[in-house]
Design goal:
The complex is a heterodimer. Chain A has six helices and eleven strands. Chain A is globular, with a radius of gyration of 17 Å. The two termini of chain A are 21 Å apart. The relative contact order of chain A is 0.20. By secondary structure, chain A is of the alpha/beta class. By secondary structure, chain B is α+β, with helices and mostly antiparallel strands. Chain B folds into two domains: 192 residues, no CATH class; 186 residues, no CATH class. Chain B has twelve helices and twelve strands. In chain B, α8 packs parallel to α11 and α10 runs antiparallel to α11. The chains are: A alpha/beta, B alpha+beta. Chain B: It is found in: Cell membrane. Chain B: Its main location: membrane. Chain B: Keywords: Cell membrane, Membrane, Transmembrane, Transmembrane helix.
Amino acid sequence: MLKVENVTRTFGTKVLTHALKGVSFEIKKGEFVIIMGKSGSGKSTLLHQMGLLDTPTSGEIYIADKNIKELSTGQQTEFRLTTLGYIFQEYAILPELTAIENVYLPMMVNTKSEGTPKSEKAKEMLEMVDLGHRLNHYSNELSGGEQQRVAIARALINSPQILFADEPCANLDTLSTKTVLGLLENLNKSIGQTIVMVSHDPDDQRYADHVIWLEDGLIKSDKYKIKGELI
Amino acid sequence: MNNLRASFFLAYKGIVKGNMGTTLLTVAVMTLAFINLLFLSSILLGLVNTMNRQGINNLYGNIVIEPEDKKSLIVNSKRVTDLVESVPGVTASSRHYKAGGFFTFDKYKNGQNVNTGRYSVLSIDPSVEKNVTDISDAMIAGDYLDDNDRDKIIIGKDISGGYEGSFEKESLGGVVPGDEVVVLYENGIERKYTVKGIFNSKFVQSDKNAFITNREMESILGVSNGAHEIIIKVDESQPESHYITKFKDMGLKESIYPWNDYMGMTASFTQSFTLIRTLLSAIALLVAGITIYIVVYINILNKKRQIGILQAIGIDKVIIVRSYTVQALFYAASGIILGLSILRLLLVPYFAGHPLEFPVGDVRLEVVASEILISIAALLFAGFISGYMPAKKQTDKTILEAIWG
């Protein structure tokens, strides 16, 4: 499903910062992967490379058997729209759109979803994240947790092969965190959604079946959960 | 098609759910920019047209016939007026004699306070002249001439004085109807006239003239059925050149000129004003363009994170750029509609009722369709560039740059 081969990412021109120093791993379909590490370990940078929000300095990333380096800008946009879903750390829904409009916008431009009733599907997605009663609310009328659930619904509307989540609960209270993570876990378990989530909270490991620890731009450990234990 | 719909959807939501204050301010800026594009230019056009119209209505008509080369008089002027009036489209003609006169006005008839001045005296057939010039409608004191008047004269306000004209100091110092003035003509003949009326055509070149009847002038010059000039009024649906060609084709040997050949200094003003109008329009367009660009650019800067998010979730750059371009075009179109409404429904009627009083006449706003179209196209173009450029620049950044700054 996703293969990362010796990826590096260096920032700056005069003073170089090596955020990723050669990272390799593989993610299989249906996995709930958590990338853990301390602040500055390179976990968000790694997620940005996989989510096609940034370009690696070197190395290869394969998603669904496609080397993303070989995709044109237009193909990358199409790939982000149809194959990937992305949830940001901060609530990243558009304030000028209602919850349902935020959700169906990516579907509106997706030629592959033509023929599907968009508002019906968007409504279904919002109901799935338990926001069926908030369809026509704007972001300033939603709590942080609700906004993040709208972002999840939006990320899922085009049935992505992989859902990336960049510390989606960093700005949420405990209850909302539990709700959002429970929702992601449920998605993974019920429909086999492949999820790659960045987190710095070791407690979040309990949701994952694959945990990658990053330290100083390198993989410190890459473990799978087998019978409840990370091996 | 989906992309187009998405662009318009985002633009619509951006306008409807965007900050109302910003939207109103942007539309207000566009409105003022549009009015600015047309207002001063329209005033100047009004000024130019007023000057031209004054020349036609008070001095030259549309066409002037002068004596043949090396002759000082049009002989058998009746023949000429009959001929030109037979041409379809010619509405009237009037023959004039012209003479220089040295005016003397002894206000208190005691030789103590005598004012003098040299002015042009034109002679007219008063009833015919009414069909060609507006002098008869411009009387501000006393009466217009009658065809049989012999010892009567009407004078412009710049001769009489007392009406705060442009040449008050050079005037006769306050002549009123009923006063007597003595005119010494260039041929040495002196006549005493009772001032029958004073006119104010609001055109300085006309208000320094005096009029007597043709019968009176013929007795002074010792001629009959002649003229120094014949001025002709025509239906302006055809250009003057059309009539001039006709007259020549009919065998007129006299010299024939269109009115604008006589405008002299006024024509130079007109050319200067046209140049000024072009420059002002260019500057106004530049200011409008820069203003719109700044307003839209700030709006887009405030939304750069949203642009990054849109790109991150797979919305194509083209959709995003187009949505901001549509928004900018909406602001420009709103400004155009509002600006045009203010111009046509408020400013034009206001200035029609309350014209600006210039020495050359009453000036109204002259908003012409071609300039409106040019201004609309210019503002829409400025709107397009102002929406497209900053949005394109923003979407050309990397997604992370857009989101995190």
